[in-house]
User: Fold this.
Amino acid sequence: MKKYSEMSKEELEKELQTLKGAYEDAKGKGLKLNMARGLPSEEQLDMEADFFNTLNPQSDFFSEAGIDCRNYGELTGIHEARQLMADMMEVSPEEIIVFGNSSLNIMYDTVARSMMFGVLGSTPWCRLDKVKFLCPVPGYDRHFAITEQFGIEMINIPLGEDGPDMDMVEEYVNNDPAVKGIWCVPKYSNPTGVTYSDETVRRFANLKPAAEDFRIYWDNAYTIHHLYNGKEDKLLEILSECKKAGNPNLVWKFCSTSKVTFPGSGIAALSASEENLQYVKKLITIQTIGYDKLNQLRHVRYFKNIEGMHEHMKKHAKIIRPKFDLVIKRLGEELDGLDVGTWTDPNGGYFVSFNSLEGCAKRIVGLCKEAGVTLTGAGATYPYKKDPTDSNIRIAPTFPPINELAQALDIFTLCVKLASVEKLLG
Amino acid sequence: MKKYSEMSKEELEKELQTLKGAYEDAKGKGLKLNMARGLPSEEQLDMEADFFNTLNPQSDFFSEAGIDCRNYGELTGIHEARQLMADMMEVSPEEIIVFGNSSLNIMYDTVARSMMFGVLGSTPWCRLDKVKFLCPVPGYDRHFAITEQFGIEMINIPLGEDGPDMDMVEEYVNNDPAVKGIWCVPKYSNPTGVTYSDETVRRFANLKPAAEDFRIYWDNAYTIHHLYNGKEDKLLEILSECKKAGNPNLVWKFCSTSKVTFPGSGIAALSASEENLQYVKKLITIQTIGYDKLNQLRHVRYFKNIEGMHEHMKKHAKIIRPKFDLVIKRLGEELDGLDVGTWTDPNGGYFVSFNSLEGCAKRIVGLCKEAGVTLTGAGATYPYKKDPTDSNIRIAPTFPPINELAQALDIFTLCVKLASVEKLLG
Assistant:
């Protein structure tokens, strides 16, 4: 097939008619398919049935230290749950607080605490004229929504193959005291799937922030979420790098089992230096009496240890990998050589990131929607939902069964072509 | 026995020697007993074993509306969980958001939201010079800790048999725009056990606050926690009274199953007008993707409906009531006629409130501690931990097994006598 960009106007007009016909046919099918959010599929969730036998009427409900997990207490989590999350986050249990069911909630509250109380004695952000966050783009829409709600100014930082543009990051962080944070998904990044290089992590750890209360918001959501395609990414552990660099307080790490056990019913954790955690602990001891220790116990007894978790993720990958393979295969079959877009081929995580011709993303998402395929809103991967080139689309292939995914990809690739031809015809 | 206040100095000296001897004997026993917090006992928790079979590997995990409770979604809770909490809180499901495991966390976040974002368009409290809360006393220490953490000025309001002194409440609320809230435990109040009268509730509902963002913080923690002694208290439902009075937005209601199923592993809910809830929903949709729906499902399937919950609470009462009976019996046997204190005899809740002679509470709690009996800290039932007369002590009899409770009460009554004699001797 000829590149669209090399087609004559007549060829494009002809292609447009063909595509329009196919699109009308597709619409006629009345499909209702969803590739919008990074949700596990029902098949994946069904795999977890044994989780519901982990605690049963015959169980004992005491932690290894003799804590009755059915009663109040243990604000920072039972030790074995801290150990499990520590192993998942590659830190020590003393550097962990186990919270409730949502790492997003921890991130939100971490920002909220800084707004209301400052960080380790700094001025509460709500008293400052201006607070800024750096936002590697494309990135995770829910991060941007948090900083937007708090009225924090967001600054786009290009995200490349090795991570964010660290020259820009250093320039901002080391010079502007209004810059208080940066959102990072350092491994199998949402949506581009990249993993930050060792050099990037080291440059992060060696930042010399102008603001004493600047922190790196390190959302390692996909730390163990490999596709097990033989090419697992490795990420340097940042807290220990920060300690080596003499900056132990520089980072908040977030993680959860939302996509290990159950979204909404997993356990989430915060990891940071002991000084940072002491500050958090002092505040949360007023916010709650404690988090759900029975759910901590379920997780610990279900997985036994981090090896159990890895084995478990391999089973997930058996379901997820064919879906990613299908996305890459179909995009290639339909779009290779047309010069209408590029896409990622990640080794883990939950997304494929697609970049269309400039100015086409909204149109593609709109066309898909009209034909019954819901995608993440165009622009969502940028602060304020404003993709400056209107080109990035996040594809979330994990939720639909594979036959529905195939149908959705037929529609998607068709819409990409249609929007591209429209654009080239001007 | 003669009243201590009518004893001569010589009689008191003699009594002091006797008590001191008994106290030294008691200390020698090396006891370690705890009446500090309102915790269910292990015996109570053991009763819930079947809860752990509610969801098992053979269960289906879909809500009545077909929501997969193992996946993301349903921010405000599955319908049947909203219905259950609505029945518990005597409102409609549309007036409910089901949150996570802790009503205290909902209260904290409700105050935090007001600090950061104001309420329904009002100025965020963090931008105001002064924010005040009314605090009926004695009250719940964790309420006061929240407002203290936010730097909110707390004003003591005497709590009588019918509820807070409503003349004072009206005076403050209707005239001072800095007064933004009042903490209430309206039924089986913590610690005094009183239930607000119908007139009190109606006067609350008819407040005409000077501040548009004034709210009543109605922590109905013990709504179904009767002792089933044949004298159940009734509380008028406040949200409907507020609606009747044309003030639908006046109240936040809080509730949880922490002392119905498991502290830390229950479900908690917020009830308010639809306008208030819309405001909350708009903010929490950024804070989290959703709360633990599997735990909602467990609760719904375990209880089936509110009648199931009431039946369940009757079983709890069979364990708890004898403990309260023992407290009342032993206080009467040891202290009646001595004129050294008064105490409550509630029909529900988790506490007995004891008032010693003025200036004796700290001494009593200290003496108890030295003899191995931990009580809630003296002063804890007042804002800033300052009991102006140093006389209120909260007794939490639910946690210890009944034989340990008996031992603890021996020590407690002994320490009351000892501190009282010391005080009278000057």
About this structure: Chain A touches chain B through 54 residues (CB under 8 Å). Chain A has a mean pLDDT of 97. The two ends of chain A are 21 Å apart (CA to CA). The first strand of chain A starts at residue 33 and ends at 35.
